[in-house]
Amino acid sequence: MIELNSNIPSGPVEQKWDKHRFDMKLVNPANKRKYDVIVVGAGLAGASAAATMAELGYNVSCFVFHDSPRRAHSIAAQGGINAAKNYQNDGDSIQRLFYDTVKGGDFRAREANVYRLAQVSVNIIDQCVAQGVPFAREYGGLLANRSFGGAQVSRTFYARGQTGQQLLIGAYQALERQIALGKVKMHTHSEMLDVVVADGRARGIVVRNLLTGDITAHSADAVVLATGGYGNVFFLSTNAMYSNVTASWRAHKKGAAFANPCYTQIHPTCIPVSGDHQSKLTLMSESLRNDGRVWVPKKQGDNRPPSQIPESERDYYLERKYPSFGNLAPRDIASRAAKEACDDGRGVGPGGLGVYLDFADSIKRLGQKTIAERYGNLFDMYQRITDENPYQLPMRIYPAVHYTMGGTWVDYNLMSTVPGLHVIGEANFSDHGANRLGASALMQGLADGYFVLPYTIGNYLAGVKPEKVDVNAHPAFTDAVRAVKAQTEQLLNIKGKRTVDSFHKELGKIMWDKCGMARTREGLTEALEAIPKLREEFWRNVNVPGSGASLNQSLEKAGRVADFIELGELMCRDALHREESCGGHFRVEYQDEGEAKRNDDEFAYVAAWEWTGDGQPQRLHKEPLVYENVKMATRSYK
Amino acid sequence: MRLTLHVWRQSGPNATGKLETYPMDGIEADMSFLEMFDLLNEKLTLEGKEPVAFAHDCREGICGSCNMMISGQAHGPWKGATTCQLHMRAFKDGDEIWVEPWRAKAFPMIKDLVVDRSAFDRIIQAGGYISVNTGGARDANEILIGKEVVDESMDAATCIGCGACVAACPNASASLFTGAKITHLGLLPQGQPERDRRALAMVEQMDIEGFGHCTLTGECQEACPKEISIDVIKRMNRDYAVAAARYVEPKETAGAG
Q: ipTM surpassing 0.90, yes or no?
């Protein structure tokens, strides 16, 4: 049985991280080169961690399934990155970023982690600028900021609508520099398919080379997973096509507890689905809500073109319901409000599944040139997909799955319940509670990778002797390799009648209908009956063409979908057990006039699920959440 | 809409490749080009054939994975768009479309439409970075950078590393890619200390990888999905010439003990 120990340092929240940094053991510089560390994934968290640990002197091996570390989906983040710099003199502070994040997460995040995140946020901006990240600037040469949802200050730093790209390129360049220096060994086209736990701690991974099909084991003194979120369990999401849960899930099966799986973020501003052929959804950055106004017609079934609907017959519902935050209400709230308007028959566009995001007022106020400068690439992207010109017509948007707050459970040191297995970035559960605020994912990924893990992993490594393992002899390694080979063979040999995608789509539909924006006891119970049947059919009737000895994209996808099916079941079980509404988790039975109704007496805890074996329900462990610095209250953005 | 696809099929790096013809039916104008390939692959799988391997991931024009030469144009007919952003309304009923991989000596073939672009990573390794370790950076606002300068730097920094510039170039030159990085970093104050050695090392690596020389045909900027201007090549050439003229190997200095 696993034990949850959050290892939160004692003392006042403002001093915990400083104190902990002093208390942690150090590895002396000459000894660092004796330790091997494996990093899986090279998005913002993975690339920044791999580069920083290599700079410190550790021997780092980094594994990605992409052809290059520059492709990770962090690259698609558009709007920006938060930091408590208070450059705008508008009352921001570490304390305020901390408060906004705890409140935005609907009081389901760990206070100590969030405070540390707010503290290091300021270092991230300094580091990125030093690397040459071209953040937007004012004419005088100072950094510019914009506003994001859930905050009343301007603390978001950005590089046009491509902030994730620029931050990732910064981390990628730092990583490539370490590769050139021989401190990081980069393995591309390499998908992690298992964690090896030997003698009670994570000692390595099993990897399949996607080009040759070779399955090999790699050992290290510590393993770091930076493998992103699991939004693709819904099939349609804003995630990249390859984003998947496999690394986290295989770690879960090796003993890493999985926390709060039902906390998924549905982003309010995405381009609506256009047909059955749709393979993914495209986000329109939240930053657009700085200058765009969200509305639907007041009348149900009003089919007039937007230009013919007079002001008096429009419902700017976010401004009406949340006057103090208006169009910048947090994501979960804005998404739910959009769904409500559409459910009420006031949605716009094909199928009535859309609301308007209108820039007419801003264009009138600021001119088209300014709007184009701020959001030009997003407007172009919208036009290519929809064939409509957003400078003339309001955008049509609808909520879509975007981010997962849940993930592998980690302690304050970002270590999972498997000693030596660290998990960073979106892949862990730690900092966003039940809802993440906009522009905080980039902040957390880089905080973990540049400024938290490189310290805390030293504390772990200082306590273990650097030792090589013979991966060809140690039974934990040979068994893991054998199991991965067997699963690959099994997938290829089923030769059933259905494609991998058809299973993925069916799972996605179950998840969206029953475990999406609104969840009910009845729906979740149905899903918990349907998903095991789907799993059973998958392992009997999936068709994976080709062989395992060369590039086989169907085989790669089959393994990922198999894991998504199991994860989907756990998400529904978690959502069913959490009999309250909080953040992205909205249970229809628990609401107060459409607003989420938390139950702090019974559910102010992290739900960490322990794997107990194939086909068995996971065991629930609870980490109580204690709020000493922010008073738990009903979130109000009114 | 009905279309005829001619797609390059090649089972491995050393196999002989050829164009296979696939008639496509039921294509909708709102589909993306890659969603049409999803449809084709579902069909091939159900027929018991091996689907077409192609590189893709984000499907929103930013990861740089997708790379199809569509009827002779890198990323197809839309300007400033990647293959994944191209939508089928760009075509009309009855069209024939030829789909091939990027072709360049420095991008070896892997399978079907997938090629190896790791040469780009090695060009970055040669010097496409600013050497700062984590920690110790000074306050971000202590470095003043004019808006015009940062905007120009950003124009170059938007490169997604897809390789369309190489595929479109008659010489298979990587000058637009390399020039974009040299410009992005070389315009910024933070990039000055290493500007000379960066230009020399990156240009040299480009040659080592087997990319061709630039003859300023301008095909690269036409094909670039981020519409990066060939001005970056001008800048690269100037930086390289200046650096070559004044660069001296750093002196060996003895440590202070």
A: yes
